[in-house]
């Protein structure tokens, strides 16, 4: 099915459409300096294609949240949710084909990159049965796919760049059509920009950006000056979904508007006598009245309901039993941990994935909200992998306290050895320690044991027969030679 999106008019007044089906297969790059009309262009595209295709918008400034009222997009306020919830939203969005706006406003640059990376990877990793076509619009793409390292942490930059690369390079087979907008091509990673086959180039002034834009449009260098002279809201278009030759298009009107707008000149107030006295007046002794309390923010369950509910249906009121106390919760959590550890594949899965599995298992056993965060879960999981179900009741409190500075992923291997030492059992073989540590590499196990020994938690001895024993010197526990 072909659907043409009317984007505006060319120089002679003829309409310039974008073939939506072709766009889904060939992706789009929009470039232009601040104020050139990029957001207006994206809004026109989203408004005119609403109802024809699923739309997912990564919005760093909150400009597109107004689509919610007019077109029913679900707004996800990233500042109100954890990374784990954002991943869950991404999975549900693909399943239920909901059009959403991920509002990253209020987050620092590094947090925006981490959140966008988690969200895009959740869309990308959806099951094959949910690979429905979707426009994935990323505004200010240079923030999420920078051409060079900046002030943010390297792991955040790599995660975000990897997610953007997957979207533009491999997303087509999964139904994801990337539409990215950037202020400067020079700031956008080349392997991300190069995967787009359609281009809409707006006004830009720097020579390096004009040269790259002209190169993408197939124009000669001497023709690049035309890009500097473009009016606001006018773009040069090229690509299989728009035109086979560079074509000037003036973007048409839109029905919604951003919450922010360009600054306008407004008259200054009339001169007042005594303004100096007002500015330098001492503060009042009494405290100002407190503002009214803010409206409650939607929970992750509310957002998931909005994504999955049928049109027009309201959320049911559930008569849930009161949550169990700690005494009742511990056996339920212990049983959930046992089932996770019994799965051999769980040793090689990430903690965040296992934490979601743990929560689901607890709910199936009658515990709606387990009283553990991700960090607490990792430490309880480490104990379970070492065969310690109740650390306090089994006398491992001191051992865990000594290991408080160890990374969470090392705690399981440490406790496995500690348990053998406390019971006087033979030293666990490297293969068993590797499984607890979540690796197949025996070399990593040797480095792990050396790291723990450097922290003075272990002392390793090898006798003349080549048998190894490990002592926990501060506790006086020693494994039998093996």
Description:
With 482 residues, the protein is α/β, with parallel strands linked by helices. It has 2 domains: 4-251, P-loop containing nucleotide triphosphate hydrolases (Rossmann fold); 326-478, no CATH class. Helices cover 39% and strands 15% of the residues. The protein contains 18 helices and 14 strands. It has helices at residues 20-26, 38-49, 67-71, 83-96, 109-124, 154-170, 190-193, 207-217, 225-228, 275-279, 300-308, 326-342, 351-364, 374-385, 397-402, 408-423, 430-437, 442-454, and strands at 4-9, 15-19, 28-31, 54-59, 74-77, 100-103, 134-138, 176-182, 198-201, 234-239, 243-251, 459-462, 468-472, 477-478. Strands 2-1-11-10-9-3-8-7-4-6-5 form an 11-stranded mixed sheet. A 3-stranded antiparallel sheet has the order 12-13-14, with helices on one face. A hairpin with a 5-residue loop joins strand 1 (4-9) and strand 2 (15-19). Helix 4 runs parallel beside helix 5 (109-124). It is elongated, with a radius of gyration of 29 Å. The termini are far apart. 37% of the residues are buried.
- CATH architecture annotation name of the largest domain: 3-Layer(aba) Sandwich
Determine the fraction of residues in helical runs and give it as a percent range: 25-40%
Give the CA-based shape: elongated
Strand share of the residues? Answer: 5-15%
**Which class best fits the helix and strand makeup?**
alpha/beta
What Rg is obtained from the alpha carbons, in whole angstroms?
A: 29 Å
Assigned CATH class of the largest domain:
Alpha Beta
Number of helices: 18
Largest sheet: 11 strands, mixed
Strand order of the largest sheet: 2-1-11-10-9-3-8-7-4-6-5
Spans of at least 5 consecutive residues whose pLDDT stays below 50 are: none
Number of domains: 2
CATH fold-level label of the largest domain: Rossmann fold
The overall pLDDT, averaged over residues, is 84
InterPro entries: ATPase_Atu1862_pred, HerA-like, HerA_central, P-loop_NTPase
Pfam families: DUF87 (PF01935)
Protein name: Helicase HerA central domain-containing protein
Domain Helicase HerA central: 10-76
